[in-house]
Structures are given as structure tokens and as C-alpha cells.
Amino acid sequence: xxxxxxxxxxxxxxxxxxxxxxxxxxxxxxxxxxxxxxxxxxxxxxxxxxxxxxxxxxxxxxxxxxxxxxxxxxxxxxxxxxxxxxxxxxxxxxxxxxxxxxxxxxxxxxxxxxxxxxxxxxxxxxxxxxxxxxxxxxxxxxxxxxxxxxxx
Length: 152
What we know:
This protein is 36% helix and 7% strand. It is mainly alpha-helical.
């Protein structure tokens, strides 16, 4: 059997009590409800139409409607719980291009080469330590290639 959360039960009860109180007060006082375009009012308005607010349902129909409402609330609670569980199982954010994280007890299979911090080359006139971009020089067409292309 499905259970309804306390929050859902309170909401269901509050809406049922409020609806019953409003319907009872209006039917007891003999008030009329007027539809004025897309809104409703207790006062007549221009081009408004009177709306019949009597609940013509039988007790069995009201009971069935209440059971349906409870079933819908239980289904909503189940779906919310499932969503929270699925969200908790989701991995955290991943940086694209970042190396995979490994536990401290596992040694990496590769050994990083070179330094991680760029150091300015001496003698180039860049003693400030700022990054300086450079581009490769064009290849000399007279120089032999190291690749073994069979033309040696």
C-alpha cells in the first residue's frame, strides 16, 4: 500500500476543507457566482453569466474522487522520491579535458615529463617573466627529413 507524505496529506486536507467551506458558505447564503470572461466573481458584471455551483455528485462519487486524489498524491510522492534518489546517484560535474581523478593510493601509470611551469628562456630579452608566444620557423626545403620515406 502506498503512503502519502505528511506534506502531501496536509495539502490534500487543506484543499478539501477549503473547497467544502467555500461551497457550504455559498450554498448556505444563497450567493451566486458569476463568470466574467476568464474570471469568477460574487457580483454580476457586464456580459457575465451566472454559474451553477451546486455539487450534483453523490456521496459515492465524492468518495471515489477523494480516493483518486489520494492515489495521485501518493504517486506524486513516489515519483519525487525516485527523482531524489536518481539525482543523488548522479556523478558530480566533470571538467572536459581534465585527467581522471585517481585515489591517492593508486599510482599513475604514466610519468609526467618536463616541467609544469613555463620558464622564460634566457638571452631572448624577456626577463619580465610574461608569457611570450612564438611560432615555428618554416622548414628548409634543402634539409633532409628524418622520416623514413624511402627517398634516402
